[in-house]
């Protein structure tokens, strides 16, 4: 029901509120891209000073009349505001313009409705839409009075509006129950990965920073990637094999945006929890974007909302192919730990550096040494080879194997314990000094 959309582009007038408060203001270029992503055919763009917002229309009555004339002149189907409108402001503006009015939250919800592909994604979008719509129901039902009485029809006298609100509450409760089930399934899958000691890495970042392109380049997948806002909505997980570390699970997640509606953050909590439970976050940044500093701050704000602000983060400056004179590189902090990687996901330059940096950060507790294994531990020797942990092999005079290994310590402990040995005693006895 909530995914039925107008076929083709709707003639839209965009209204950008130019606020003196830089924290509250929006990016007009981003606003145009949002409208384009939603499929709107923009016929006019207005930048309106918002120094003194009004309770009735948000903007001044003179601007409202000017916009009404433009709506009629362009025969516009829709007026979109780059700001959050109250339900009463939407109704008042629709009454004057005689066409639909949409605010920034409604526009983003519409884009999410288009992009949702999986059952879970559609449930999350519908929940956000219902929450948004619940305060706006009066718009559609003010003309209806109480249901008629009469023989066989007498009842509680519930208005159509009250009936609709009750049905919404029932549907919202049903969706939340289904999403709780999804959340528990995801948690079960995460526990399984932790038991197998497989680290998880999530791609996060501002929308259209190139996360899906990077994801495809790293995992050789074909996840949908396009030069548009919110091209990715449903999370995708793939296994990635890293040298010197082994397998990791890489997750591609929904992009963030300035002033992301709280309804969306709450609705997509099951998806965003994939990021908040990761061992490492790859913060993908559009290196060519002039407003990248503000975008970085917005991403960090959303990470704070989902409780992921304290996780290890590696910044990935993408789209190096659009910059002149910048080469792929790893930038390190004072302790030598990787903190920033410059690369191009499109042409592949710098991808090996990213894999190296991820392996370094996740493999902080690596066991690197030469083990001397007698022939009775041949099965353990084979397991080291299966994991790709053996750098070089030679043989001692007594025929025992000398293995130069590089392996996460937790993985070493797991293998040794599986053979019925104590990890600390094994390391002391079989490590060559």
TrEMBL record:
Domain Hflx-type G: 199-366
Keyword annotations from UniProtKB, A to Z: Coiled coil, Cytoplasm, GTP-binding, Hydrolase, Magnesium, Metal-binding, Nucleotide-binding
GO MF term (any one): hydrolase activity
Coiled coil: 165-192
Pfam families attached to this UniProt entry: GTP-bdg_M, GTP-bdg_N, MMR_HSR1
Record has Cytoplasm as a keyword: yes
InterPro entries xref list: EFG_III/V, G_HFLX_dom, GTP-bd, GTP-bd_M, GTPase_HflX, GTPase_HflX_N, GTPase_HflX_N_sf, P-loop_NTPase
Annotated compartments: Cytoplasm
Keyword Transmembrane helix attached: no
Assembly and interaction partners: Monomer. Associates with the 50S ribosomal subunit.
Task of the protein: GTPase that associates with the 50S ribosomal subunit and may have a role during protein synthesis or ribosome biogenesis.
Stated family: Belongs to the TRAFAC class OBG-HflX-like GTPase superfamily. HflX GTPase family.
NCBIfam families: GTP_HflX, PRK11058.1
HAMAP family, alphabetized: GTPase_HflX (MF_00900)
Protein name as catalogued: GTPase HflX
Naturally occurring in which organism (per UniProt): Phytopseudomonas seleniipraecipitans
Upper taxonomic lineage: Bacteria, Pseudomonadati, Pseudomonadota, Gammaproteobacteria, Pseudomonadales
Gene name for this UniProt entry: hflX
């Amino acid at each position: 029901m909530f995914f039925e959309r107008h076929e083709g582009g709707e003639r839209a007038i965009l209204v950008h509120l130019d606020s003196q408060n830089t924290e509250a203001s929006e990016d007009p270029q981003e606003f145009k891209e949002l409208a384009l992503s939603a499929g709107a055919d923009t016929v006019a763009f207005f930048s309106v000073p918002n120094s003194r917002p009004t309770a009735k229309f948000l903007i001044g009555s003179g601007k409202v009349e000017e916009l009404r004339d433009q709506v009629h002149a362009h025969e516009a189907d829709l007026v979109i505001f780059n700001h959050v409108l109250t339900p009463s402001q939407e109704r008042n503006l629709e009454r004057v313009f005689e066409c639909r009015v949409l605010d920034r939250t409604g526009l983003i919800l519409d884009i999410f409705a288009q992009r949702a592909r999986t059952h879970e994604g559609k449930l999350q979008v519908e929940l956000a839409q219902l929450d948004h719509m619940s305060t706006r129901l009066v718009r559609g039902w003010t003309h209806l009075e109480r249901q008629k009485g009469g023989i066989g029809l007498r009842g509680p006298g519930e208005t159509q509006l009250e009936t609709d609100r009750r049905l919404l509450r029932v549907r919202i409760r049903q969706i939340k129950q289904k999403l709780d089930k999804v959340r528990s399934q995801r948690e079960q899958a995460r526990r399984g990965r932790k038991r197998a000691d497989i680290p998880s890495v999530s791609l996060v970042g501002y929308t259209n920073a190139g996360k899906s392109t990077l994801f495809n380049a790293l995992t050789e997948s074909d996840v949908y990637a396009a030069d548009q806002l919110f091209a990715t909505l449903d999370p995708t997980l793939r296994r990635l094999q890293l040298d010197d570390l082994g397998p990791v699970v890489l997750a591609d997640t929904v992009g963030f945006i300035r002033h992301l509606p709280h309804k969306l953050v709450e609705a997509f909590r099951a998806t965003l929890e994939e990021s908040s439970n990761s061992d490492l976050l790859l913060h993908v940044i559009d290196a060519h974007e002039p407003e990248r500093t503000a975008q970085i701050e917005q991403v960090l704000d959303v990470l704070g909302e989902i409780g992921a602000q304290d996780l290890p983060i590696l910044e990935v400056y993408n789209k190096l192919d659009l910059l002149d004179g910048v080469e792929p590189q790893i930038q390190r902090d004072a302790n030598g730990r990787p903190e920033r990687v410059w690369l191009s996901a499109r042409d592949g330059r710098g991808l090996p550096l990213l894999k190296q940096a991820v392996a370094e950060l996740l493999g902080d507790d690596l066991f690197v040494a030469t083990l001397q294994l007698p022939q009775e531990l041949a099965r353990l020797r084979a397991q080291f080879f299966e994991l790709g942990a053996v750098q070089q092999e030679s043989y001692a005079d007594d025929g025992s194997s000398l293995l130069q290994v590089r392996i996460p310590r937790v993985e070493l402990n797991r293998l040794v314990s599986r053979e019925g040995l104590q990890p600390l005693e094994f390391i002391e006895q079989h490590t060559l000094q």
